[in-house]
Amino acid sequence: MRDHAHVNFTSEYEDCFPSHFVYLRLRARVKSSERLGPCFDQVADFVIKVQHAGGRVLVHCQEGISRSAALVLAVMIMNEMQTLNQAFDVLRSARLVIEPSSNFLRELRALERRLFGVLSTRRLTPAEKASTDDLEASDDIDEELTRH
């Protein structure tokens, strides 16, 4: 495996340097209802393989604010066993502009609950709804994630 890999989560940009990077290609959908949960395992496994081979992984989407941030948070939760709050703080300190959508945060909270049996309740972004309804809605997402 090459030293560097690339998770390309865009619909606009092709994999330009296949002789230089190992690519994981995920096609982005421009919808407010877009789901990332089904990609979490695939991306986490890809990152682990590259890291075990001594490589590094660039994860990017169109703007590096929501989709790629959510995927990196999922990898940190799954591979580094960090809570969502811990992972968010680390990632935010490296990239101040991250702001995963509320849908993506619900999926990440469901992932956290599935792995650790707990749910981070701290509001992470200004746009995030911190209502009990949103936390309960993650039950449906949690059930779907366990099927994957």
UniProtKB/TrEMBL annotation:
Annotated region Disordered: the residues are: 129-148
- Record's keyword terms, sorted: Hydrolase, Protein phosphatase
Q: Where is the Tyrosine specific protein phosphatases domain?
A: 41-95
- The chain positions of domain Tyrosine-protein phosphatase read 1-117
The record's listing under InterPro entries reads: Dual-sp_phosphatase_cat-dom, Prot-tyrosine_phosphatase-like, Tyr_Pase_AS, Tyr_Pase_dom, TYR_PHOSPHATASE_DUAL_dom
E.C. no: 3.1.3.48
Q: Which GO terms describe its biological process?
A: negative regulation of MAPK cascade
GO cellular component assignments: cytoplasm
- Acidic residues bias locations: 133-148
Which domain of life does the UniProt lineage start with? Eukaryota
For this UniProt entry, the molecular function terms from Gene Ontology, in alphabetical order, are: protein tyrosine phosphatase activity
* EC category name: hydrolase
Would the keyword Hydrolase turn up in this protein's UniProt record?
Answer: yes
Membrane-spanning intervals of the chain: none
Regarding protein family, the annotation reads: Belongs to the protein-tyrosine phosphatase family. Non-receptor class dual specificity subfamily.
* Record protein name field: protein-tyrosine-phosphatase
